[in-house]
Amino acid sequence: MDTETLLAQAGSGWDYRTGAVSMPLYQSAVYKHPALGKSTGYDYTRTSNPTRFVLEELFAKLEQASGAYAFSSGLAALDAVFRALFQPPDNKSLAKRERLIISEDLYGGTFRLLENFFPHIETDYADTSDKKVMEEKGAKPFSAIFAEIPTNPLLKVCDIPYLSALAHKNSAKLIIDNTFLTSVNLCPIELGADISVYSATKYLGGHNDLLAGFAAAKDAVVAEKLKYIQNAAGAVLNPFESWLLLRSLKSLSVRMERQTENSRKIAEYLTGHTAVAKVYYPGLKDAPGYSLLAAQSKSAGAIVSFELKRAEALPKVLEKVKVFSFAESLGGTESLITFPKLQTHADMGEELLEKLGINDRFLRLSVGLEASDDLLSDLEQALR
Ligand SMILES: Cc1ncc(COP(=O)(O)O)c(C=O)c1O
């Protein structure tokens, strides 16, 4: 069945006793046992809950995965992925650190998580969109590659089949964070990834009202590990959030389509604007990752980053916007404008951010569902 059909009918028909078209919310933490040694299949909601189960089953189908698991946030899902793939060494010397080659421009929280809580992972930051760089990085032993597509916030595009071949040639795994494009545009596992991971807080949730994450694995053994960690560490998605997410998924494909259309118009408007030095949007024909993304994804998504010519103009833009909200998330129906250097990426440190170009002139837009004319005139008055 097509992704759009699966999404439109998210959760429908599971409750065959009542025929409920909308999946009911099973707001119960505990389940009664029919007899000693017998279970309905549900014992305790951290381990399994019907509403979450239906959501996870749907997500596994969308991702062509052996198993997909819903977590309390995107970072909780990332935490589970790193725990599942990287075993802490038995001795405490950390002599057996395993190498992870990872996008150098990526969500700052992923950087913070890895640098603070996984001393047994040797992080090797690289431009995962540059094949020459990746060839050199791949010459030394490594255990996994992690890439965002496109990267947050510079929107660089990696070649998933190429990274998959490089990883597998070295008996390593490929992890793709597909938060920005979602299953509507691209299925990482279909293109060769071993694990796909998501902040479902963003487009999947889509309404700036919930926190959630997903991790999906191609291989059944890795999927079982994720499921085990989900229950054992306990960062599960609760029933109400699972229900909200099922509800949001029904409209994901139309939201993505409209938000992408608005983004293209904004990227075109910003290109050549007298106050703007550079626009980052892989949906523009002369953008560096345009053809590579078009070969892998249905659309370029709805994030547009840009650099102002003058740093002094940036605080004024943030104060003057009225339709865009100055806030630090993305993917919702409401358009947001973010200053990554101080908000989402602050933990990466000034030196690295400066080197990457995430500076005092750099802004990221999450384009929502509003009328494009309202968004364009808001930017027009804010940039004046
Ligand atoms: C690409 C990406 N991955 C993961 C995360 C973390 O997700 P969450 O905020 O749901 O924990 C974010 C958050 O902004 C993100 O942008």
Task: Give me some keywords for this one.
five-stranded mixed sheet, 12 strands, 384 residues, 36% helix, 14 helices, alpha/beta, binds pyridoxal-5'-phosphate, Aspartate Aminotransferase, domain 1, 2 domains, Aspartate Aminotransferase, domain 2
Explain what the structure shows.
It is built from 14 helices and 12 strands. With 384 residues, it is α/β, with parallel strands linked by helices. α3 crosses α4, α3 (74-85) crosses α8 and α12 packs across α14 (372-383). The protein folds into 2 domains: 3-249, Aspartate Aminotransferase, domain 2 (3-Layer(aba) Sandwich); 252-383, Aspartate Aminotransferase, domain 1, CATH 3.90.1150. It has helices at 3-8, 50-62, 74-85, 108-117, 131-137, 160-169, 182-185, 220-233, 239-249, 252-270, 290-296, 313-320, 350-356, 372-383; strands at 67-71, 98-103, 121-126, 144-148, 173-177, 195-199, 213-217, 276-280, 303-308, 325-326, 336-338, 362-366. The strands form 2 sheets. The protein has a 7-stranded mixed beta sheet with strand order 1-7-6-5-4-2-3, sandwiched between helices. Strands 8-9-12-11-10 form a 5-stranded mixed beta sheet, covered by helices on one side. 36% of the residues lie in helices and 15% in strands. Pyridoxal-5'-phosphate (PLP) binds next to α3 and α4.
Question: Which second-level CATH architecture of the largest domain applies?
Answer: 3-Layer(aba) Sandwich
Number of discrete helical segments:
14
Distance between the termini: 48 Å
* Helix-strand pattern: HHEHEHEHEHEHEEHHHEHEHEEHEH
